[in-house]
User: Fold this.
Amino acid sequence: MKKIQPLFSHINLRRKLAGERGWDIPVKNDLILQDPPIRVKSYDELVCLVAQIQHYNRNLMLYYRGQANDRQEGGKTQLLPSIFRKYPGETRLLLKDRFILLNEKAAALQSALVNRKPKKLSGTALVVKYPEVSWAILQHYQVCRTPLLDLTHSLHVACSFAFDGNTGKTGMIYVMGMPWANDAIGYNTFEELVNVRLLSICPPEAQRPFFQEGYLTCHFPTYKMDSPERIDQFDVARRVVAKFEIPIDKNFWGKEFMMIPHSKLYQGEDIVDKICEDLRDK
Assistant:
């Protein structure tokens, strides 16, 4: 995944709001990842600030990601998909084993959908044809780790994820810049990434992606993704445009908005969830 070109970031926005000269000078990705986020007090304020980010980056399509805290490595924000992360207690990264498991689960998912009785679900052919679609379903139903990172086109959804299960005082909102999408599965060879619009390719019986207005992205092509020495290339932080810190307080939403409940973000008990539950059990 290529680093995003210098652009108007939250650093420029901070300088503009402070009335500094040269506020419009494009900023490189490394500086964006090292710089602290802008702190906002309300959802309305966040929307207005993000509107400026979009205005000055009209060549990009903006996506969002919300999470509890700013994971960093070497003083820079890091947004690694789950399959590339080192978890507590792990002395080394067994990427090859993880990809073997991923391929096994993807094959099992495809088999379960193809052989489903009395009839196949809509979209089964796409799941079989495109590996990223299988990965997307495995990711969203938490069957196993995948090379995909969850994004959303909804700032409301992103903020709800930052709130969901967060016991701290603040949460993080990342604004990601992607090429303009012209298909449900967008392969961009120049930027070395693929962007998957879940609403267009998942079986409609898979309710969770629809409630999350979900997108997924990862490095493309999927060549030697099980090589630990290449992990830096798979870091989706390379596409970060801006970072914001929000208070985990109900007053953040104001009177008209509210957090999307956990039960809706993780809509369960649909047909695809049942299939994935069987895969998790095995």
Remarks:
- The CA atoms of residues 94 and 228 lie 8 Å apart.
- Residues 10-281 form one domain.
- The radius of gyration is 19 Å.
